[in-house]
Amino acid sequence: MPRVRLTNKDDTKVQIMKIFKRFDKDGDSQLSKTELKAAFAELGAKWPAFRAWEGLRHADDNGDGLISIDKELDKVVDHAVNLGYTVN
């Protein structure tokens, strides 16, 4: 059976996903703008509040002002990777 090998981009996505999930401080499986802002700050964003707003704009499909970890977080992670965020 072939083994799955992560590319650098795949590995980066996994690591960034873990960071975002870690900032779900209230454990509701959703990220608020405040939680997104803290996660982007952890990633080294120069303007984390702007990045949080952008993340919501890109991924908040139902317009509730929250990012569902199960349904919408992949879009935020893809956006962060496309912006060039990495994890050392």
UniProtKB/TrEMBL annotation:
PROSITE patterns: EF_HAND_2. GO terms for molecular function: calcium ion binding. Signal peptide: none annotated. InterPro entries: EF-hand-dom_pair, EF_hand_dom. SUPFAM superfamilies: EF-hand. Residues 11-46 form the EF-hand domain. Gene3D superfamilies: EF-hand. This is EF-hand domain-containing protein. The lineage of its organism: Eukaryota, Viridiplantae, Streptophyta, Embryophyta, Tracheophyta.
